[in-house]
Each structure stands twice: as C-alpha cells, then as structure tokens.
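Protein Record: Sequence and Backbone Structure Tokens
======================================================
Tokens: labelled as protein backbone structure tokens, with as many entries as the chain has residues.
Task: work out the structure tokens from the sequence, keeping to the layout shown below.
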Amino acid sequence: MKSSFSVIFYDRGKRAETKVIRKALRLTQHEFATALQLSLAMVRDWEQGRYPTDQAARTLLRVIACDPKAIKRDLEVFKSELRQNE
C-alpha cells in the first residue's frame, strides 16, 4: 500500500534547510518566494546564509517540510488567481 504522506528531511538549523526544502518541492527561488509572499532576495539570503531565518520563518519551514503538498496547493491557487486577474 502506497502512502500519500510525504515529509521532507533536512538538517534543522543549517543554513541549507531553506534550499533543501525548496528543491524537494521542485520550485525555483522565485516560485518559493512567491508562494511564501517573500522577496526573492530574502530567499536567496536565507539559502546563502547571508541572513538567518528568524523563529517564525523556521516554524514555517518546519510546517512546509511536514506537509510539502500544502505549499504546492497554495502555489497553484496563487497562479490561477494571477491568470484570472490578467
């Protein structure tokens, strides 16, 4: 029996956690930033260790890692809303 539950494993507290989670979702930095309503620069800074994630961001990343399908659903909704507003 195949499980529909998936979790992203990463080293918590490491600067690469954002990148590992984003890549596991198969999202570009731009798509990831858009889905989280962050600037592209912020995502880049997190991934490259120039700016540390704060507690709220780390909590959000843990939620995403535990339920990666949620962000994918949100991104699809966002994309469809963009298309409707064009």
Q: What stands out?
A: The first helix runs from residue 17 to 24. The mean pLDDT is 78.
